[in-house]
Write a structure and sequence with these properties.
This protein has 219 residues and is of the alpha/beta class. The chain has 2 domains: 141 residues, 3-Layer(aba) Sandwich (Rossmann fold); 68 residues, DNA polymerase, domain 1 (Orthogonal Bundle). The protein is built from 10 helices and 6 strands, in the order βαααααβαβαβαβαβα. The chain has a 6-stranded parallel β-sheet with strand order 3-2-1-4-5-6, with helices on one face. Strand 5, helix 9 and strand 6 form a beta-alpha-beta unit. Helix 1 packs antiparallel against helix 4 and helix 8 packs parallel to helix 9.
């Protein structure tokens, strides 16, 4: 299975762990309380999903026209991490998909190493990725630049980006992976499929159970 690919690179939030809803509900509440900004959950997904913490704070600064209060960063990290520690779950079907997948795999995420250790640890998925977890904090530029994907591939011993498949759930993640010269499958459980297609995803799917068979079809 998967002779076309030497490596599968997974995003973390929204692809491996079902964290996007929890994190964005909490962040929306914090934005109201600290900055007086009101976002629906749909607005949160449109504006912030796929971005690193620092990128999110930069977006808030652009919206309010000045640096946000220091409390925002403190609350962002504390409140989201507390909520995830209590309620994060694995994406439905990901455990079975990983068990069936015979290809080398790693994680390349905008999340911090600390956050990924917590979410992957709590869900039990970390055993599939121990020692193969990469964060945009490891590289100069975050998504939508290709740096994290190229760094992950090189670290995994894969020199040809075309031999890599990336599984992403955000348009900026898809954009970065395409820019890296990699094949990209967009996971549209929460993100509208048309946004992933528009970002350049080569295939879009909605059920993680289907991933191994989709990879087999692209050998």
């Amino acid at each position: 299975m998967g002779d076309r690919f030497d490596l599968v690179i997974f995003d973390c939030d929204g692809v491996l762990v079902d964290s996007e809803r929890v994190a964005n509900e909490v962040f929306a509440r914090v934005l109201v309380e600290v900055c007086g900004l009101h976002f629906t959950l749909e607005d949160m997904f449109d504006t912030f999903v796929g971005h690193s913490r620092l990128q999110c704070l930069q977006k808030v600064e652009a919206l309010i026209g000045e640096p946000p209060p220091p409390e925002l960063d403190l609350r962002y990290q504390r409140d989201i991490n507390q909520a995830l520690a209590q309620s994060v779950q694995a994406i439905d079907g990901i455990e079975a998909a990983l068990e069936r997948l015979r290809l080398p795999r790693c994680v390349a995420s905008s999340g911090s190493h600390e956050k990924m250790r917590m979410t992957l640890g709590k869900t039990g998925l970390i055993r599939h990725f121990e020692g193969r977890i990469f964060s945009t904090s490891d590289v100069e530029r975050g998504k939508p630049h290709p740096d994290i994907y190229l760094h992950a591939a090189r670290s995994m011993g894969v020199e040809d980006p075309a031999r890599c498949l990336v599984v992403e759930d955000s348009p900026i993640g898809v954009t970065g992976a395409v820019a890296a010269g990699m094949r990209v499958f967009g996971f549209a459980e929460l993100m509208p499929a048309e946004r992933l297609h528009a970002a350049g995803a080569h295939r879009v799917f909605e059920r993680m159970h289907d991933l191994p068979d989709l990879i087999a079809c692209h050998t």
